[in-house]
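Page 42, continued from yesterday. The earlier attempt failed because a stray header line got pasted into the input along with the sequence. Redoing it now with the clean sequence only.
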Amino acid sequence: METTLDADWRTLGTTGGGRLGTEHLLAAVVGSTGPAGAALAAAGATESQLRALLRDRDRDHGREGDRDGDRDGEADCNGDGGRGAGWDADDEADAGVPAREVLGSTRAPDLVLTGASARALSAAVAEVRRGGGHRLTAEHVLRALLAEDRTRAAELLRAAGVAPQAVRERLDGPSAVLDPLLIPTRDALLGRRSRRLPRWRRVLTPGAAGPAAPAADWIRWETDQQAQRLGRRTPGTEHVLLAVLAVHEVLAHRPQPDVDDTGGELLAWLGLDYVRVHGALSAGTVALPADPRSVEAYLAGAAPGPLVRVLLDEPTRARRLVEALRAEQDAPGEAGEAGEAGEAGQTGEAGEG
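This time it went through. Structure tokens are written below.
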């Protein structure tokens, strides 16, 4: 298996070259998108702060190293083992492990790792393989870095006023309560999985979406994904509803300031949640009519809030589904009975979830 790390190897440029230590791995991770970068930012570690600290400590370490050399081996009166004032941890710098021995093929084949960074990357690669994956991500690396408290990465975090445990909690907490059905949405929304445009979206005529474009793009892509997971080749407005709810519930755990969530907030106010809507569509217990317009027409340039309002104003499949679920809330066991015959198949077969 070839494992590659999408990292900014130019972090070494901030120190004038040398061996890649855990501090450089951390500086690469902090600038990444997705859960790793978000966890560091939420705990208070910013890219500019960590990189500035990294430059300062490496510079001070180099100066102290020169002074140690001038003393020609004189005993260190500060008791720091001769490592210099910049760093307390030495990261096992003398180990000198070629990066290709740990990562296989890399975009920087001449990189040499410190012993601590080689150990961290080896642990991260092992975690990828245990999970059956083929790509090493920033999250894998960050988890491995947080597993040790006596490395330069841990020292860099503490110098920034951030406890490694706080980063672990940010990284682990939300995932523990997010429904497994929403993991694919979370991974795509946070950049852990690449987005591929839906087949039907390629034929759409671009509209003047303005500020709503990023949110509209996400809902379009997620609509197609939700339909596919439920066994439908062509999405209906019920899948738009499911997509809006999926994004809403992921954003509740991992806020993204550039994604409009007004549509999800409206659906939540109506008492809907993703698992319940997904369950109704999987079971096929609600008879859904034909949509009056194509999904493409509803989605073209629409921001989530106005989009949801239109879907609920017109006699769409989404509206019928909402009515049935709300009626079920008011009178358990009575909703949807009339539609369980014949037409129920229109909602699609249960998908992979």
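Notes: The CA atoms of residues 242 and 277 lie 7 Å apart.
Reminder to self: strip header lines before submitting.
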